[in-house]
Amino acid sequence: MKVNEVNSYAQTQGEQKPEGIKQELDRDAFLQILVAQLRNQDPLNPVDGENFISQMAQLSSLEQLTTLNERVTELGAMQGEIRALGLLNKNVTVEKPTGELIQGRVQSVNMGPEPKLLINNEYFPLGTLREVFSGGDSDE
Predict the structure, then answer these.
(1) Most CB atoms within 10 A, among 11, 16, 51, 123?
(2) Is the pTM of this model over 0.70?
(3) CA–CA dist 67, 12 (Å, integer)
(4) What residue segments make up the domains of the chain, in order of their start?
């Protein structure tokens, strides 16, 4: 097989990215690389102490950023839940997938990854909310 054929094959395979392959270096991959480096180092020429400390600091930073990202995601979910709860008994307009606008009072909130609003005995995702208007606290 010629080099050009190999390059051509590699390019076509590179275009097809199987699902599950990560594009980012996560914590586990970083640790695997670090352990492999330590196992395969030359005993007569070990890894420089400063280099090792630098890599450990990078690992620590990676873990802190991962934790921060998880917390920000959780915070965003909680904000959605709080927003949905604040709409109880309010008059709102939501949009159906067909584009039809529905008006009604929020009767209930179904909590979950994406809160849903019960309006006219039908659940709508919070993201379909188009308008909140006054007069929602009165009995209809």
Answers:
(1) 123
(2) no
(3) 36
(4) 89-133
